[in-house]
Amino acid sequence: MKKILIFGSFGQLGSQLINLLKDEYELIKINHADLDFNKFYLIEDKILKINPDIIINCAALTDVDRCETYKEEAYNVNAEAVKHIIRPLKLTNSYFINISTDYVFNGIKGNYSENDTPDPVNYYGLTKLLGDVYSNSYDNSLIIRTSGIFLNKGFPVFVYKNLVQNKKVTAIPGYYSPISAYNLALAIKYIIPLNRTGILNIAGNKISRYDLAIKVSELYNLNKNIEENNIELTAKRPFDSSLNIDRAKKLIDFNFYDINENLKHMVMK
Fold this sequence. Notes:
This protein is an alpha/beta fold. It contains eleven helices and twelve strands. The protein has a single domain (3-263), classed as 3-Layer(aba) Sandwich (Rossmann fold).
């Protein structure tokens, strides 16, 4: 049985990966509570001791506004930690999957493919791009770019909780490619045996945040107290960070991209 080391195992994606992979692989789970990501020698030491066949890095500081304010923390978790995951892999020869983001792009054109040139507009996107660069320095690695992951938190859950309480929801203008943590984890399960390297976009279909909020209201028969408007945010957001998923559709044999199918996996507790 192959051994998989998962960084960020308690997060939305990490928890779903554990549920979906536990019967086929030996799983080693590491979260921030288990390992100080600022003590990089501990990361390298842990990998060398475990000697995993596969490493999946789900650990990230994904609060975009926090990254803009706490830049050292963002850099350490999203970039420097990846560098120190990569370093011992030349000895273990592990297959490495790094979870990246659509926010590495500037959002001017949208429908970004794996071959498009990144140009982040905020510090979160920059740190994730640096993590990609470190990942790409190791030949046996796959960068999975995704968008708007949700399960028990994220924009769709935010919309649901506010509409249930009859609060107004303001959706900032723009487009992205949201996907549920469940469908992303299941897609990764499909990808692991293929041993793909390079970059692969796995995300949902393109949609505006306003239209997504309307879909949530309709799915759960809630009021439509929803408006599209700019709000003051610490970090700039790309207007259209949607991802082209044509390559993934040829590799993954289930509907991971339909918005309605993804919304079915929301957890509102």
